[in-house]
Amino acid sequence: MPTKADLKKLSKPAKVKIRRGDKVMIISGKDKGQTGFVAAVAPKENKVIILRENPENAEQPLPLNAAIKHRKARMQGERSMRIKIPVPIDLSNVMVLDPKTNLPSRVGKRVEEGKVVRYAKKSGEILPTEG
């Protein structure tokens, strides 16, 4: 007889309403209240990786919900470093920001002109798609 954990693994993952590139706010955890953009989505694990813009270096964004990894010096002249690595955060701890009001909002889907579009339920504004 399969256990509850085995049945959970066999079930399909829920449809994810958050996509790469969406502006989001963390609503719980150590970085609660911080905003950033979604860098990666893992629907099977129900997790996302969130980064935010770096004002000093636009090409290298800063991770939110980061863990610090200590890197030991390998050669004589090299220095040891502390590197921030982004840790995936659960989808339930993240909300999409409404493009009109810039406040957290739930996401809905509706059909417009024969296409399914995502919209912010707070204002009804269509969410921009990455592509």
- In one word, what is the shape? globular
The third-level CATH topology is SH3 type barrels
Rg calc? 19 Å
Number of helices: 1
Quick one: how many beta strands?
Answer: 11
Order of helices and strands: HEEEEEEEEEEE
Question: What do the pLDDT scores average to?
Answer: 89
Largest sheet: 7 strands, antiparallel
Helix content: under 10%
How much of the polypeptide forms β-strand, as a percent range? 35-45%
Number of domains: 1
From the N-terminal CA to the C-terminal CA, the straight-line distance is 45 Å
Provide the CATH top-level class. Mainly Beta
CATH architecture, by name, is: Roll
Oligomer class: single chain
- What is the SS-derived class? mainly beta
Given as residue ranges, the uncertain stretches (5+ residues, pLDDT < 50) are: none
What keywords describe this structure?
131 residues; mainly beta; SH3 type barrels; 7-stranded antiparallel β-sheet; two-stranded antiparallel sheet; 5% helix
General description of the model:
- This protein is mostly beta strands and 131 residues long.
- It has one domain (14-120): SH3 type barrels, CATH 2.30.30.30.
- 5% of the residues lie in helices and 40% in strands.
- It contains one helix and eleven strands; from the N terminus they run H-E-E-E-E-E-E-E-E-E-E-E.
- It has one helix at 4-10, and strands at residues 23-26, 35-42, 47-52, 62-63, 66-71, 81-86, 89-90, 94-97, 104-105, 107-112, 115-120.
- Strands 1, 2, 3, 4, 7, 8 and 9 form a seven-stranded antiparallel β-sheet that branches.
- Strand 8 (94-97) and strand 9 form a beta hairpin.
- The mean pLDDT is 89.
